[in-house]
Design brief:
single chain; 248 residues; alpha+beta; Alpha-Beta Plaits; four-stranded antiparallel beta sheet; 9 helices; 11 strands; DNA binding
Amino acid sequence: MAGHSQFKNIMHRKGRQDAQKSKLFGKLAREITVAAKLGTPDPNMNPRLRAAIIAARQENMPKDNIERAIKKALGSDGENYDEIRYEGYGPGGVAVIVEALTDNRNRAASDIRSFFTKSGGNLGETGSVSFMFDRTGIIEYDRSVADDDAVLDAAIEAGADDVVSGEGGHEIYASTESYRDVAKALEAKFGEPRKAALIWKPQNTVAVDDETGEKLLKLMDLLNEHDDVQHVYANFEISDALVAKMGG
């Protein structure tokens, strides 16, 4: 695949700067609280909570913050958040999925719609672009945990659907039904992954020119910086030159 896929690279732009850590911790805490509230507060029995805690640890979120977010779910006076998925098209007709947790649906919808409009795109109905993505589980490990063959063998034995190994590490994909069992089996063999989550994986990616790519990256940043937005997925890829220019 030529160039840089948004799916693999651009998502990592979020939260890299120290100035954004506080906002990122807030989003991670919100996901932990919602996950604990919707299921059991035991991460061993609640795969969504387990995934949220792993994500928090990867960002070096203090243990006290994680425990506080779980306890918040057990209280009766905690905020209630709605889970909403927004779908639309960005510049160049690129498909974009936005997952949000919000305590104000009207505010979130208005803000996210304005981001799409200002970028030259438009927000659509739920289902308008998600058919171009697969809902799938991903388990990621650093390159150092094992060689490609060992990871592939372990993934096949665990029941995974696909494995992609490269310089950045190992990515193991599993269906939504088998994801939890695959993650458990791999963790027993290789230890805690650097990521384990359900994601929207584009079925195909679209290469865009640098001008369109720059507009798309600005839209991604606007969305990711919004307090209610938890995850953003899109199906475009950009050139190495634009990655270098944008500091990606």
